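INTERNAL AUDIT FORM
Audit reference: QA-55
Scope: verify that the stored structure record matches its stored sequence.
Auditor: D.O.
Record contents follow.
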Amino acid sequence: MLAAPLTETHLEGIPVQHGKVRDVYDFGDRLLLVATDRISAFDWILPTGIPDKGRVLTQMSDFWFDRLDVEHHLLSLDVTTLPLPDGTNVDELNGRSMVVRKSKVVPIECVVRGYLAGSGWKEYQQSQSVCGIELPRDLVNSSRLPEPIFTPATKAEEGHDENIPFERMCEIVGTELSETLRQKSLDIYQAAAEYALQKGIVIADTKFEFGQVDGELILIDEVLTPDSSRFWPEDQYEPGKNQPSFDKQFVRDWLETTDWDKNSPPPEVPAEIVSQTRAKYIDAYHRLSERAFAWE
């Protein structure tokens, strides 16, 4: 019997912003990012959460922040370093919370694609390009690209992020910053993808977010998780079709088998799909981090 998923957190008196998955509490010079067990698909938050999903995302991010040679926002996973309100349920927050540096968020999703999938594959079928980047004409669904490409998107508080050409990103945040973010994103992806392949996982694509603190560019939010990336099992990879995955694509695929019209509230997710999704998230964490998952 799985524990009930945590879909909402409460810290009395602390300013909070609720995202699709995270609740962000403002402690002045620091933020508390709480990854709930909410799961979204097709721009909707589903009515059924995935138990411990938020803990997997947090522990995975912690692993990558520790491994990657890049400045980032994570200060601690210990929520008691913050002046929490009296009566706070610390057990509820443990494992799913990050104490982070507050930064000025760059309003761009920094997407890197090593393989042709998702919205990139849809765009390629129409134009043989992705975000204005011309690609070879003989590619198929899930093809490995000749080299990773940087395909930025605008950040959406609600609804779907919109892919944009690099030139449009330069107009939004400036050419110098755009070029720096492109190179940083490609470098981080390359290092992570090479490592993941050694662990039997293809990172098909991922998205990064960055912020600025006193002029310093830092990696923020989650990083290289099953929510922000497409993870495929390397031993089952076969171009020309959709791939089995360790990420929430599994839930999207189930939704596609229902009669949901994607314009009305989505259906409850069956217990079997919930259990399998949780297992996929934890499996990806085990493979990549080689760490125990304390809530298994």
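Auditor finding: record pair retrieved intact. The helical segments are 53-67, 90-93, 118-127, 166-173, 175-198, 249-256, 271-289.
Action required: none
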